[in-house]
Amino acid sequence: MDNTDVRSWDNTHFVHPWEGMSALGQNERTFVETARGIHIFNGNGDRLIDGPGGMWCTQIGYGREEMAEAMAEQARQLAYFSPFSNTNSIAARFARELARRSPGDLNHVFFTTGGSTAVDSALRFVQFRNNLLGRPEKKIVITRQKAYHGSTYLAAGVSGKERDRLWLDKADQFAHFLPDVNPLYRGEGQSIEEFLEEKIVDLENAILTLGADRVAAFIAEPILASGGVIVPPKGYHRRCLEVCRRHDVLYISDEVVTAFGRLGHWFASEDVFGIRPDIITCAKGLTSGYAPMGATLISDRLIADVAGRDATFSNGYTYSGHPVCAAAGLTSMEIIEREGILEHVRTVAPVFQERLHDLSRIGIVTDTRGMGLMGCVQCSLDGDKHSALKADYDIGARIDAECQKRGLLVRPIVNMCVMSPPLIITEDQVHQMFDILEEGIRAAE
Ligand code: PLP
What we know:
Belongs to the class-III pyridoxal-phosphate-dependent aminotransferase family. This protein is an alpha/beta fold.
């Protein structure tokens, strides 16, 4: 296909997320027009395995007729109506199904337009509740370096990826950042147990120093996703929750990436990490990427604190509970259940993780880490895990280019490649994917 015109329209008119200004108007982005199962087709008609799963979101894979039908049928019946003073039955059903699958008493679902707005709504709800409880000074949100919670002003304010914070103003007057929880960077001779202890002390000290009466919440991704698939030490989340409970600090689990099967369960908080948070934020796999939607799940306990008061939670979106998005979400959920996709992930993930860790044999690979169907390969040209040389900055992009030539798309993040394929990937396809990734890394060495 000749893409000359569309490439020019793309470069002239389409401002992309995280648009780099140095190459503005001269980008050579891959065009993706068609996709089926775990494969995408680029502008040249080449078939590539979708290593990143879109953006961690295409759980059930591409091109599902049943999804297209459900969404089309809903659009025919009711494409949209205002959620402010009206409702629709498909969104109500979807809310009930989410509540049924969520941990503990997270029975209240606030629908949003994506992950950033789910986090934004969670933070605004926390402020709202504290204001109503007569403690307006309890506002600080403890978060972590390398966290990514979204791109609205408030969600970006609690996000801790340094490069993202360089050029934009931040609403971080409420944010307090804890140091990196990546065990790779623990001190010389420090055991994992000692590192874990240090991280728990970091959290508790922060609360004590700032004052528990000023700290409203702790927000954490179960696994820091865009920060480079950082898996905190075992027991970390449970211990953090205990600290939060001791000081009346709410625990917000940002499951925008980890929910809906990425770790083999509907939600990872309880089933994988053994915690029942006060709030869960989710999006992405919520609709398998077929429609933009997010959700903030709030506990009975928190809702009971605000219910019956003479106040309005003045937060919401034209498209909260959008019927077509809800149809996509419900149908995706039905497919995950009917096809046993959660069980499938639990079966295939050990193979994925074994092949991932096997890449550490390659000279420039300085770390491999992951869980479920999430993985990261970190590289450095001098083989030093601590260095991110200027020359290392484009290793991820070079590996991606080499892999694309061989039939695999990966997600490069500076000196890392992140993998999170559609959850329907078979064991054979996992092998194909890692065979190509290995070749791509060696070619980029
Ligand atoms: N939270 C986490 C953990 C994410 O990874 C992301 C996006 O990658 C977001 C929030 C923001 O979601 P969205 O891009 O749908 O607004």
